[in-house]
């Protein structure tokens, strides 16, 4: 079902100077809305945006990647692109500080999208921190295809759970975990997954969040022998496939494991095919090691 | 008045002097979505080695003030798959092609050159000698006049007479003019200046080097003054040698700076990461700037800052 | 828990590890208006020569991406006037003083050192060997292991036993560890890493080099990855040698990076031009950062990124 | 009369984060007003401000120098500092783009000020382009001391003449020259000076503008044997006297010519003591050449 990989990726990508329409603080994040053109029409849940940060004479030479939270095309042809931004370092701080009326240079849509099953399945969507961003639009689509959609969101503290009201509407259930027990169940998402998988007879997990979380989920998806599509987060210098910084070891259809670009053959990948936990080393058996 | 934007490097002709930089545009496929590759002076492909390479472990990059570090480690499919897949595709695009090769021993440069000698559609070969020489305690070829010359001589012997060889030098040396002289003597038809500078970033959270390889190559606007200096120094001593300049070019103004210093062509690397269209914008801006400054031919601007002894 | 912020370099004690960088704070007078000089680890004075020097013609500087070029050319009053005016004044301020000296021949380093040997109130001498050697076709002392060693040996012989000698090295070399080894053998008690990198800016209006001397020294955040790399490389081979790190430090975070790489003290240069209070802010931020990371003594953080082989 | 040099220079300098109160386009320039503290009280005509440009993560590491156009202290203790900014390169463009409400880091007052005669004299104020900025406040002070004040402003084109109405009030006469004859007399300020000097029996010239203009004026002041205080404009890296980039050859009271810092022993200097036209060379006879 997943359409991961393939020659047509990024064929709809456009570079665009987008006006900031709104910028609101929501918990630990900024929810930002940009006015774009019809490129919004081509954005799929899982795709990301590469944003130029810092303005003219910036010392930051690389774009920043953000998952698309929502994208819609109004009847007047104006597209709306929405992001959920955590102001961490200088680049994301700059972005989060842009006021309505300012313009931001972005490239979208980039990368792979979550694969949508052709028949109704039971889907479990798992998000960590701002990793929930792409999951709400995905939930809507899955709902529209008649799927059962359950969601688990986890974070260290309650303020880092991003779960707007309208998003909750499209899921059958929402479970929240926090490590400090400030909201929902105390613990990590992986603590609650096995029960939910059994309870809801989950066929496929969709996940987005920190790499350690994706690794933990993969262990569970593999032991339960269910599908796992995850959106990975590797440092990206270019976001368009030319720099080779964003790689991780992934087993291909031919059984060979290659250092694979997460910007173009990801960010959405088959979690069960990723060799997790190999930062700072090339695992044995990787092609060309 | 029409402006003659073409340039030539040791007999190889290019419609304009703006190239991609090796390792910063793959083999062109990903950029072809943003603009036709035929509009570039040339596509310089990522340095290719004999065998498939996984490259280095991640993290492979760190952003730095007005620059970045990378330690990709020459990930690639190896020369055979490259010649089978990438070259025919590039030819179909109507792109001018400069193939960059990299070896870990003198013999590897020889083998790579032999594989290239009869491949149609290649305009020149860029020899990346900023690689560790496994036969010499991993010292980088380009950091020693003798090993630099040995790699270039191996390429020269094996490539045949037709294909120009461009030796790509490292700025991490005490005397880049001496290295230039050495590779010219060894048969280089042109020079590419400059490769990245060796740098390091330490993550102040983990309190360890950020990159898995600890050090990486510094590129981007931060190093432009070093590139301009290197090109100027070499051009001052070798008035005729073709030079492909690179290092921190992000605008037509920047490219013009390298051209005035002595570059016959300009490769754009890191700027493409910030903007996939950078190379096209730079091409357009440089053309306009040359015209505004009164040049009717691009070649007249090359090394113009040396007139009257540069004062 | 109280944090021990002091550092020592070859027996010289400093209350904290943040110094001014030579040439970026004059002799302290101008900064004394913004903060008391006694709050610094040390004031490193502008490199002084034997005779008065007019310095180079203007333009002497150009801003570059995240950095700047300078070619001041060691303008100064000469050692005699300096010792008469500046040292007593600095002593009166309660400042720790490191005097930087520069010569154009080995003999000049000897003469300067003799003049310093009995001056009270000096904590150390920084020997700037990034100067053209008039006896050797103007090649920079620091770019050759032999001339670097000769300059340091001359200083060592003439300075007497008490005063620590810090050799300031240039990054413009193929192998900075080799130069470090050479000056250590010649009697350097410590190293200062790094001086500026040779760069050039061409003015795209006049189409000539911007600086009157054509080339200049590149400093500022742009070069920080080079400084970190140089310090890390030298520290890896010389675990004990005191190192004063410098190059692009603008914040406590940046200083911490150099410390983790192996610097026992950090000099702040270009950042002072953007902000006269930079050096004090850096001092405060670094102290806080060390504490946050759990260090109780500054010296424990020095070279911490080398633990477990840096992985 | 001039108090050039001296140990107390910069003793009133403060670093301050100043709010932009107003920013208006006037001809080729932006007239900008900043809210500061009592430092405004210490600003004298000729002093300058060093402005940090580019915001957080800027690639521009050096401050930009701007002459103080006006400085005043309101009764509520708020100081107002006014600049006239030509948006030339990246730094000045950034400054000119700062909207009211934003904050700018500045250091002021820096450098020497125009010397004020203790007795009434006939003064001729000569400005080139934005070089007129410090002259209006100077004119007011001179007027207050009973001086006759005539003014000449020159530029290449009319739009580059900065001469606000209220400024004109404090001068006895205003002559304008433009090189393209788009306003006033066609030509350069130096063309009209000799006649004005004779006509108004000028005792002292105060000037501010491009170095070539100051050189031309010095020729005239020397041949007429009158005083000439000029505000020079050299590239400055630090603005506070520590970097030695801003030097030019100036003859000292002891007759020795030294490479002299224009940020601290200037920008206002005795024009008759400057060795003009020696960019790119150290003139013979300079101390330590
Ligand atoms: C596919 C993808 C989707 C993402 N979606 C979101 C999102 O929806 N919301 C959100 O807040 N953040 C998201 N991120 C993370 C976001 O890209 C980083 O927070 C951001 O790049 C940090 O930049 P900075 O300048 O603030 O931090 P700095 O630490 O100053 O950045 C320095 C460099 O490291 C890179 N970097 C730093 N942190 C990360 C990170 N966590 N992941 C990848 N690169 C990093 C930066 O891109 C930059 O090149 C996503 C990342 C990826 C790869
Ligand atoms: C004492 C003094 C007073 C000044 N007063 C004014 C004023 O009232 N209004 C005004 O518009 N401008 C004034 N200037 C000039 C102003 O400083 C420059 O226009 C500004 O520095 C240009 O910066 P930039 O980033 O726009 O240009 P860039 O060319 O990008 O600057 C690059 C570097 O060169 C320096 N530089 C460039 N042009 C000049 C210049 N003309 N003079 C000095 N340094 C320069 C910059 O400071 C910077 O370090 C004054 C300069 C000095 C020295
Ligand atoms: C991610 C990355 C990969 C690179 N790979 C190569 C390479 O394979 N071969 C090569 O000769 N140079 C390589 N370079 C160096 C560039 O070609 C260029 O010389 C250098 O980056 C300076 O130019 P820039 O500042 O425009 O990037 C690489 C640079 C980067 C940033
Ligand atoms: C304007 C200027 C003048 C300098 N003069 C000297 C000098 O006299 N002696 C010296 O050893 N280093 C000199 N340096 C180099 C600095 O001390 C320092 O090594 C270098 O600038 C890197 O640090 P930074 O990036 O913090 O400036 C000078 C640097 C600058 C920018
Ligand atoms: S980010 Fe450059 S290849 Fe993926
Ligand atoms: S600008 Fe630095 S000394 Fe004058």
Short description:
Chain A contains 5 helices and 16 strands.
Report on the architecture of this protein.
The complex is a heterotetramer, with 2 copies of chain A (289 residues) and 2 copies of chain B (311 residues). By secondary structure, chain A is α/β, with parallel strands linked by helices. Chain A folds into 2 domains: 14-110, Translation factors (Elongation Factor Tu (Ef-tu), domain 3), CATH 2.40.30; 122-233, Nucleotide-binding domain of ferredoxin-NADP reductase (FNR) module (Rossmann fold, 3-Layer(aba) Sandwich). Chain A contains 5 helices and 16 strands. Chain A has helices spanning 90-96, 133-144, 165-168, 189-200, 211-223; strands at 14-26, 29-36, 48-51, 64-67, 70-73, 79-86, 103-110, 122-128, 148-155, 173-178, 185-186, 204-208, 227-231, 247-251, 257-261, 268-270. In chain A, strands 4-3-7-1-2-6-5 form a 7-stranded antiparallel sheet. In chain A, strands 11-10-9-8-12-13-16 form a 7-stranded mixed sheet, with helices on both faces. Chain A has a two-stranded antiparallel sheet with strand order 14-15. In chain A, β12, α5 (211-223) and β13 (227-231) form a beta-alpha-beta unit. Chain B has one domain (7-306): Aldolase class I (TIM Barrel), CATH 3.20.20.70. Chain B is built from 10 helices and 16 strands. Chain B has helices at residues 29-32, 79-92, 106-116, 145-159, 176-185, 224-237, 252-261, 271-274, 278-292, 298-301; strands spanning 7-9, 12-14, 18-20, 43-44, 61-64, 67-70, 97-102, 122-128, 165-168, 190-193, 197-200, 202-203, 208-209, 215-219, 243-246, 265-268. Chain B has an 8-stranded parallel sheet. The longest helix of chain B has 15 residues, at 145-159. The model of chain B has no long low-confidence stretch (mean pLDDT 96). Chains in contact: A-B, A-C, A-D, B-C, B-D, C-D. Chains A and D meet through α1 of A and α1 of D. Residues 21-24, 46-47, 70, 72, 74, 100, 128, 168, 195-196, 217, 219-220, 223, 246-249, 268-271 of chain C line the site of one flavin mononucleotide (FMN). One flavin-adenine dinucleotide (FAD) binds next to β4, β6 and α1 of chain A.
């Amino acid at each position: 079902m997943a359409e991961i990989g393939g020659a047509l990726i990024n064929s709809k990508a456009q570079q665009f100077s987008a006006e900031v329409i709104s910028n609101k603080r929501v918990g630990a994040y900024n929810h930002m809305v940009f006015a774009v053109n019809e490129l919004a029409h081509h954005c799929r849940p899982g795709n990301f945006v590469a944003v130029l940060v810092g303005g003219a004479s910036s010392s930051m030479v690389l774009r920043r990647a953000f998952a698309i939270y929502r994208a819609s095309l109004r009847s007047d042809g104006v597209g709306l692109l929405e992001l959920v931004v955590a102001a961490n370092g200088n680049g994301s701080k700059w972005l989060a500080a842009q006021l309505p009326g300012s313009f931001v240079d972005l490239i979208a849509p980039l990368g792979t999208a979550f694969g949508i099953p052709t028949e109704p399945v039971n889907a479990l969507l798992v998000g960590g921190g701002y990793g929930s961003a792409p999951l709400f639009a995905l939930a809507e689509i899955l709902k529209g295809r008649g799927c059962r959609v359950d969601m688990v969101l986890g974070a260290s503290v309650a303020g880092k759970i991003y779960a707007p009201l309208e998003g909750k509407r499209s899921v059958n259930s929402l479970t929240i975990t926090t490590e400090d027990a400030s909201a929902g169940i105390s613990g990590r998402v992986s603590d609650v997954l096995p029960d939910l998988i059994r309870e809801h007879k989950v066929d496929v997990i969709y996940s987005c969040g920190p790499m350690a979380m994706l690794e933990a989920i993969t262990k569970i998806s593999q032991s339960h022998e269910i599908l796992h599509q995850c959106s990975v987060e590797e440092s990206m210098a270019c976001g368009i496939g030319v720099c080779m910084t964003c790689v991780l070891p992934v087993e291909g259809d031919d059984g060979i494991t290659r250092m694979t670009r997460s910007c173009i053959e990801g960010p959405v990948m088959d979690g069960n095919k990723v060799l997790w936990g190999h930062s700072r080393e090339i695992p044995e058996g990787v092609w060309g090691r | 008045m029409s402006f003659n934007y073409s340039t030539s490097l040791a007999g190889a002709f290019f419609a304009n002097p703006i190239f991609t930089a090796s390792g910063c545009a793959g083999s062109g496929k990903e950029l072809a979505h943003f603009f036709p590759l035929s509009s570039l002076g040339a596509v310089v492909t990522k340095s290719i080695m004999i065998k498939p390479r996984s490259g280095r472990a991640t993290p492979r990059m760190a952003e730095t003030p007005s620059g970045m570090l990378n330690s990709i480690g020459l990930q690639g499919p190896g020369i055979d798959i490259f010649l089978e897949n990438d070259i025919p595709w590039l030819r179909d695009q109507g792109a001018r092609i400069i193939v960059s090769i990299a070896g870990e021993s003198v013999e590897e440069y020889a083998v790579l050159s032999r594989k290239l000698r009869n491949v149609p559609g290649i305009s020149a070969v860029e020899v990346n000698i900023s690689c560790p020489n496994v036969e010499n305690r991993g010292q980088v070829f380009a950091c020693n006049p003798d090993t630099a010359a040995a790699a270039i001589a191996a390429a020269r012997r094996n490539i045949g007479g037709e294909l120009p060889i461009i030796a790509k030098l490292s700025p991490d040396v005490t005397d880049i003019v001496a290295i230039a002289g050495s590779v010219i003597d060894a048969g280089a038809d042109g020079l590419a200046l400059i490769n990245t500078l060796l740098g390091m970033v330490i993550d102040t959270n983990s309190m360890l080097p950020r990159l898995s390889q600890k050090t990486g190559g510094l590129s981007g606007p931060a190093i432009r003054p070093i590139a301009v200096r290197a090109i100027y120094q070499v051009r001052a001593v070798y008035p005729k040698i073709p030079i492909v300049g690179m290092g921190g070019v992000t605008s037509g103004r920047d490219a013009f700076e390298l051209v005035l210093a002595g570059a016959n062509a300009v490769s754009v690397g890191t700027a493409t990461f910030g903007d996939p269209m950078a190379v096209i914008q730079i091409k357009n801006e440089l053309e306009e700037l040359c015209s505004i400054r009164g040049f009717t031919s691009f070649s007249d601007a090359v090394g113009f800052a040396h007139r009257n002894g540069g004062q």
